[in-house]
Amino acid sequence: MAQPKAVSKWHLDHLIANVTIACSPAGPHLIGPTSQDDIFDALGSVALAILQLHHKRLALKYHLVVRMLQIMLHVFVRTTPTCPGRIRSQISRPPPWLKTSCSALSAALFSRILAMWASPPSTTTWASKRPRLESNAAKTGKAVSKHIPWFMMEYVALAAEYPELVMEESVQKALAPGLYSLFSVLGTYEREMCMGALDGTGRGIFKGLWEEWNRFGRFVE
Predict the structure, then answer these.
(1) pTM score over 0.85
(2) Three-state secondary-structure class, residue 124
(3) Which of 34, 57, 66, 149 has its C-alpha lying 20 to 30 A from 194's C-alpha?
(4) How far is CA 85 from CA 25, 82, 88, 91, 160, in A?
(5) How far is Cα of residue 176 from the mean position of the Cα atoms in its chain?
(6) d(Cα 22, Cα 8) in Å, to the nearest integer?
């Protein structure tokens, strides 16, 4: 008799929703010695496991995944002392447990999450008693590509469009491999969509990221 899946579709939806909420202003007020990097490590490990172990079941849930990733990205931004309350409440939107931005260590974990989303692991199937390695990389990449513009526009806005928001250089460097993974599956139409949706400053930032990927990340395995 077939055993029921340990994580049902309902549980999967709620796991994604709970990680999203935990990294948002609606997240918990945590008191104790645990550092914010430790908190993000716990949340990021759940997100990574979702993408790694259940990637085949996420094909119709990428709108939920990209929103989760957008919200998680906000923990890498800190506000300047002169930042207006409007920018903090409407743009920065940190979770209650975030005292300042998470470090490059957490950014490296988030970079792995982005890479897993773009290129999930191959799976092994058995046919005629022989294992066969299956990869749906092209199919997955095409599906993910449709949602990447929404993440990239969020990244550009947080990284450089608002002087009152600061993303540390070490964090940006740690995130770079994950961004390169997204660029590796980003289609021409979606790239042009990003360029068309951004203003002059944003287009310049996005173009710079694209050129960096072409120089440094395109041929890195």
Answers:
(1) yes
(2) strand
(3) 57
(4) 14, 9, 5, 10, 18
(5) 12
(6) 21
